[in-house]
Design brief:
It comes from Saonia flava. This is Adhesin domain-containing protein. Among the domains are: about 130 residues, no CATH class; about 80 residues, no CATH class. The chain is built from three helices and 27 strands. It has a 27-stranded mixed β-sheet that branches. Strand 24 and strand 25 form a beta hairpin. The longest helix has 10 residues.
Length: about 350
Amino acid sequence: MIRSISFGQETVSKKIEKSYGLTNSGELHLNNKYGDVIINGWDRSSVRLTIDVEVTHKKKENAKDLLDRIDVTTKVTKDLVDLTTEIHQGSSGFFARYFSKVNPFDLDKSNIKINYTIYLPNNAEMNITNKFGDVIISDWQGKLKTNIEHGDFWINDDLTNAHINITFGKLNAKTITYGNITIKNGELDLEGSKQLQLTSSGTTMEIGAISSLEIESSKDEINIDEVKSIHGDLDFTKIHINTLGEEIDIKTKVADFWVSAITKPDSKIYIDQESSEFNISISGQSLIFNATLEQGLLRIPKSFTDIHTDIINNSRKIRKINATYGKGPYGEFVLTGLKGVIILKEN
């Protein structure tokens, strides 16, 4: 045990070191809180971990009492290493009373640090839960599942398969070939994905190139450089796509949706919107256009041909608009909506 003193606070610490056999076909599970987790891959059939524990309190005996209660429970089989940080509580004493009253977030910020450094085989699977701390992964390419709260997450290498849940934190990642990301009240910076399922709320995002995106979004701000196809629901979300490949199938409510360019001439676009604003560049497209709108504003280029408008319900201002754009072969643009503003433009 190491002891230090600063600004009237007593700090005590200890180091826990463990090693276990594990191959690339095995799994590592970790459940931690109140600290950072640094994970590195290596070319060995083993797991090595170092846990640095630090406790601060104005009274040395109280700090030492809590330090002694912190341990790591391990369950080890041939193909699994399971680690859980434990903070044991006694039946009496200062910290037993303290734990029963304190907010866990306050405890993290002022009293406890439990930091992990882990080395494991490059392609072993991982399931990581960490609360009130950051997670950093480097030189590792296995299958990943994480649940992170009140902490940031860095993935410094491309991954093939990842299932990520993060709340009140920022995710920084390279390419995730097949990804499932749930993020709330955070930030996302992702270079790219082949197939991404994204569930989000209250989040700011910068995304590179995606082949297929399935999205459920609420109150987000999203910038996407390139996406081939996008499907899903957007509520109170702002999204800007620099380049769309070929398909949109989206339902929106009070959303802003901008597309700067579409590369496939005969794209497929299906929009069901309520009180939303769409601004889409259709230059270079050939489209059969069909819209059913209740109230709202629609603006289309003068180069649309064969335009037909039918009033379905005059009192509710429901109308149908059919038109053609371009010379073919034709794609499809189907629009239904209540109120809102739809602007189709040429560059």
